[in-house]
Amino acid sequence: MAATSMAAALAASLPAPSTVSAAPAPTYEAIPASMAKVIDIEADIPLTCVQLDGLVVTKIIKHAREAFSSTAHGLLLGLDLDGILEVSNSFPLPHHAGDEDEKSAKASARHQASMLRSLKEVQADDSVIGFYQATTLGAFFNQTLVDTQAIHQEKLRHGGIVIVHDLSQTARGNASFRAYRLTAAFLDAYKKSNFSTSSLMSHRLTFSSILEEVPLKIRTNPLLSAFLGTLTESSKGPLSSAAGGSTASSGLGPSFSVLDLGTGGVTRNLEQIVEAVDNYRTEEGNLSYLSRQIARERAKAENYVAKRKEENLGRVAQGLAPLPEEDVSRLFKIPAEPSRLESLLILGQIDAYGKSLAGTASTGLVKMYATHAGSEI
């Protein structure tokens, strides 16, 4: 009774309800077709382009130049909208030289989790959409890149992408950025961990079909474009009117990189090609040795089976019971066919070094002819 009277007193103290009619309940309609493309919850829209923000470009170049080695790498952040993967931010991952692999992996994971948590706290993009890798002379084929990209394509929306930045091209004044992802055929062979000769033939895999390139474009905001425009425009100095001459100046200092013949780069490129060819010959020698060992073990097993069959035929002819067939795999340890993935990756490196050498040598040859013609004048 006390509780009832208290509730009644509370109800009486509240103001009387107004006579205004209640608002109608909200109705939910289907998502329009245009918004369905933007939302794309199930990632049904295929990825057609990668859009790289200008800030990300400068951060990757800065990290690659300041890194102690050419293995600078980091994570890419952003989102995918209407088939376009927009990369709006990035941060570098630490490089642990000389440490154990397990300790390096744990330290990198802790650093990644801390950075993502900090970005989330400041309301910044914290959605990982891939990673970037710095390389020299275009040779980015390695086991680490393949393993990391395979994990990203399994965990991330649209499979994630890897952006490769070539330091040697940037040193010559060309900012080289290319986006890649693993092909479906290679990913199928990778999941099965089978890179034997028959598997490569069935999947039609070569070093050129490991990765597929995704179109990439760089987006800059209007303010940055205006700033770059003011840097490139020439302006007259304060003494130009008094001196009666034209002393135009620019915000950017003069660059004489085009006068460099680039002979040092050609020498290094040739050294890398020779080293890659030696590695390929070593790998092929190891594969040949393992193949001969497998052939010997198989020949032993086949001879044993043939001998047992011949012996059983003799026993049947004598009216005796044939001997039971034994498991050959237990008697003879036939090794599995070796993986040829490392050979494919080394071939990809040789091809990249060769293409870089072709571009560098052709440019250097033109410059040498120009200097030779200029010296004769």
UniProtKB/TrEMBL annotation:
Gene Ontology BP annotations: formation of cytoplasmic translation initiation complex
A cellular component annotation (GO) from this entry: eukaryotic 43S preinitiation complex
Residue ranges constituting the MPN domain according to the UniProt record: 50-186
Subcellular location: Cytoplasm
Annotated CDD domains: MPN_eIF3h
Signal peptide annotation: 1-22
Example GO molecular function: translation initiation factor activity
Tagged with keyword Calcium: no
TM segment ranges: none
Record bears the keyword Cytoplasm: yes
Cited Pfam families: eIF3h_C (PF19445), JAB (PF01398)
The entry's keywords: Cytoplasm, Initiation factor, Protein biosynthesis, Signal
Predominant subcellular localization, coarse grouping: cytoplasm
Its biological purpose: Component of the eukaryotic translation initiation factor 3 (eIF-3) complex, which is involved in protein synthesis of a specialized repertoire of mRNAs and, together with other initiation factors, stimulates binding of mRNA and methionyl-tRNAi to the 40S ribosome. The eIF-3 complex specifically targets and initiates translation of a subset of mRNAs involved in cell proliferation.
Description of how the protein assembles with itself and partners: Component of the eukaryotic translation initiation factor 3 (eIF-3) complex.
Family to which this protein belongs: Belongs to the eIF-3 subunit H family.
Protein name: Eukaryotic translation initiation factor 3 subunit H
Species for this entry: Psilocybe cyanescens
Lineage: Eukaryota, Fungi, Dikarya, Basidiomycota, Agaricomycotina
